TrEMBL record:
The keyword Mitochondrion does not apply. It comes from Marinobacter lacisalsi. Residues 1-19 form the signal peptide. Keywords: Signal. Coiled coil: none annotated. Residues 185-204 are annotated as: Disordered. InterPro entries: Cupredoxin, MauL. This is Methylamine utilization protein.
Amino acid sequence: MFRMALVLCITVAPMIAAAEQWTFLATDADGGKPLTDAVILMPRPAEPVAADARMVQENRQFVPHVLVIPPGTEVSFPNRDNTQHHVYSFSPVKTFEIELYAGIPEAPIRFDTTGVVELGCNIHDHMQGFILVTDQQHGITNSSGEVSLDWPDDQPLPDQVRAWHPRLADTSRLMDVAIDSHPGEPVTVSLPVRPAPETDSSLDRLQQRFREL
């Protein structure tokens, strides 16, 4: 028995590859500013995870603004506002509609196809959110534009990664971005994003029309 266990350990051990953690920094290609909510995807399948997720409507916003999930995830859309919402998506990856409601819809929405789903609200034009469905290893950048991902230390870092951001000109597609790594430094991922929208505290157009009646 001891000999069999020893042989098994020797056989299995080489299959367990150590991983090295790399930090990625997503920046604006024009100004070099860090980008929050950038999604970095490595050319490596992620561990399959069965998950349920939520895309909340709160303060007339989708929270989180960007939600990354594996295929097969069911997402609920709880409404925490004191007004009703009408959530929809026309994206080919997942077209759906949750008609005017408050509270929690009767059933979650299942996302089986990889890609980007853009969300809107028929009542509040300014509301926009995104669900990115992927089976690849991924991470989303923090407020400093950084995210850390594991990569086998016996393999060189790839020459490019796939990346996405809600201010890309075409938010329906992922970008292939060339990268250049230097020991001890974050790997910069530069993205050609549109300028950030100006903060506007005014009422959206539909609400303003109601006030004027």
